[in-house]
Amino acid sequence: MGFLSSAKNLFSSRGASSVTPQDAGEQDASAPAATPSLEGQKKKKKKSKKDKGSSKGSEESGTADAAAPSQWAVAHAEDGQEYYYDLTTGETAWELPPGATLAEGEGGEGQDQGGSQRPEDVFAPLSGSEARAWKKELLTIFEIPPTVPEIQSDAGKRHIFPHCDPVSPLVRLSVFENSDPPRHKIAVSLGDAADEGNDYWRPVQYLYVFACEMPHSIPLEIELRRDPFGNRLRFFGKANPQPRDISKWKQYEPIPKGFYAYPAAVHGSSPFFLDWSSAPDRYKVSTSVGSSELGWLRCLRFEAFQASKFHILEAVPSEVSMASPEASMSVGAIPRLCYRVHKGNYCPCDQGWRCIFAFFAFDHPVPGTSRYYCQHKVDPFYTIRVGKEPTYIHNWEDYASFCAFDVPMPGTARFSVDYVTQDVDSRTDTPEQSRVFFRDTWEPWVEKLHFYAYPAPSIQFA
Average pLDDT for residues 270-290, to the nearest whole number? Predict the structure, then answer.
């Protein structure tokens, strides 16, 4: 089979760390920092519980019931737990007392502590000529991380698949869409620029399959038609996947294209379906398990490892933000060097943010991978945290996660997760922030951990 030999020439040769998020309710009910100027929170909490069942006929209780509803505010303890305090008396409680109300502008659902901006509201998308100019600049800055040496990747794949010899490398299968007429283009991305997205073919899905035969896998071949352009999948050696398809489909030349996938579910795999529609004959790859869309007929099913694209963006402080504290809190302002992990098929075009590289990682735990959690907050500027375990103290919010290899694999690059607690320039203490990087870590950044993922050769804009 031709495409197997070509793939071999290119590559010479829940085991996931799933961590249960820490439940804030299971944390030790330690006393919050004195806010406002109060101590002994545990004693007050115990006293509150003790007095709850006391007689309401006492003179003090009667006076409290007759008084107007008190105004309370929200505060946070050092461990991140939320508690309430009376603005008049300074009394504190872990739960808002019955009949009490929150003072206006003092917290509540949908508002961050201290009235800070929500993480998703701090970006300022560019448009028009500014966006076009910024996109051109981004293309000059974007880099492709280098892949790991072959000797390392050979050892890694034998570690993950110890009972397979030889071990096939994983290759990316990219699915692109065009709406005139609606159809998909299916491409095995092996370094050819034509196998990447553009303004005509927009990326919709990414999945990883085997380049060569693996135990229990089946071969699929990619065929094409020129007018209008389209391609389809067919089990190798099998008949037409859709009998109503009357178009003439051909193999890719001079080297046929194809891949190996699983016919049934395995650990970490996701189901994919090939659907057909007529006038003209066209196909698309679907993830809908129930049934195909109206006007489409289901042809075949296979299992592969679903993946997503992650863009790493760097923001350099602007002179206006550094000179004016008020301007540094405005939308789009960047008061200091910071980083951002954006999940999506398209690179965002926001003021001050430049994409320095991108990578592909799995959506579900694949053998030999661990899950990494991405969290963010505004405190007082946009900050991210990346780790194998999420945290919910200090107002961190989940927004994405991915699964990446713990050891080198063919075609992967090494990425580090660094953190810093000082300003890069002044070395003054600042809130902790993380970044994903592929170069050597430099002070004051400290490497926390590393993983292996597939580098992206290009970026696309919406």
Answer: 93
Q: Are 15 and 406 in contact (CB under 8 A)?
A: no
Look at the block and give the residue holding tokens 């000059």.
Answer: 140
64-73, 83-92, 273-282, 451-460: which has the minimum mean pLDDT?
Answer: 64-73
Residue ranges per structural domain of the chain:
24-111, 116-462
Both tokens of 204, joined, read: 């919709």
In the chain, the amino acid numbered 213 is E
Nearest Cα to 344, choosing from 171, 182, 204? 204
Which element (helix H / strand E) includes 203? strand 202-210
- pLDDT, residue 104, reads 58
Q: What is the number of other CB atoms lying within 10 angstroms of the CB of residue 400?
A: 17
CA–CA distances in Å: residue 434 to residues 304, 309, 354, 375: 31, 19, 17, 10
**Of residues 22 and 232, more confidently modeled:** 232
Closest CA to 225 of 271, 291, 181: 181
Q: How many residues does the chain have?
A: 462
> Do 205 and 194 touch, CB atoms closer than 8 A?
no
Kindly state the helix (H) or strand (E) to which residue 385 belongs, with its residue range. strand 382-387
Structure tokens at 241: 């996947």
Q: Which residues pair with 429 in a beta bridge?
A: 422
Please check the confidence at residue 63 and state whether its pLDDT lies above 60. no
Q: Which amino acid is at 81?
A: Q
What pLDDT shows up at residue 447?
95
State which amino acid sits at residue 103. A
Q: How far apart are CA 97 and CA 65, in angstroms?
A: 12
Tokens coding 285: 């790859």
**CA distances from residue 115 to 106, 109, 111 in whole angstroms, order as listed:** 8, 11, 6
